[in-house]
Amino acid sequence: MTADADQFRQSMDDALKALRELRTNRPAVADVQTCGEATAADGLIAVIAAPGGRIQSITVAPQVLRQGSGYLAEQMTIAVNAALDDLQARTVAEAPDAPNPAVLLERLEDVQQQSVHQMQSFLSALTSAQTRTARPAG
Questions:
Q1: 45: helix, coil or strand?
Q2: In this structure, what are the phi and psi dihedrals at residue 57, rounded to the nearest 5 degrees?
Q3: Which long-range contacts (CB under 8 A, 24 or more apart) does 109-115 make?
Q4: pLDDT, tens digit, for every residue of 21-49?
Q5: pTM exceeds 0.70, yes or no
């Protein structure tokens, strides 16, 4: 086996191992207790975001309703986005052993490039062999 083939096999093994670890170590959504929390409008609006990007609750103090619908919409948007950001940060912090998706993607791109190179080499060798065997004897 050539060095390129060994390198390809190792890259593929590494990528598959990382995917298996991700699948094995990934907690079920029902097992995840992490929620993201945020407030806006000086604490008058509170939002809790649950796993899966779902909003678990929104609490609005009556005082903020006097500010008008535009202000209310703006502050609710701020609170919801901040709660989702908090959820994402907490989820990453609680799962430090999970493979980094960027690193995994980079490995898979390397595997793809190596496989294309290997296939081109293989096809070139086949074409050369076919050309040699198709020549008339003489």
A1: strand
A2: -160, 155
A3: 110/11, 111/8, 111/11, 111/12, 111/15, 114/4, 114/7, 114/8, 114/11, 115/8
A4: 766 665 554 454 789 999 999 999 999 99
A5: no
Q: Edge to edge, what strands does the sheet with 45-50 contain? A: 36-40, 45-50, 54-60
Give the Cα separation of 95 and 27 in Å (integer).
Answer: 9
The answer to whether 83 touches 38, Cβ cutoff 8 Å, is yes
Output the furthest CA–CA distance in the chain (Å, rounded): 99
* Sign of the Cα pseudo-torsion (20, 24, 30, 32, in order): negative
- For the segment 114-134, what is each residue's pLDDT rounded down to a tens digit? 888 888 888 888 888 888 888
Q: Two tokens at 46? A: 């509170």
Best CA proximity match to 50, nearest among 87, 85, 90, 79: 87
Residues facing residue 37 across a β-bridge: 48
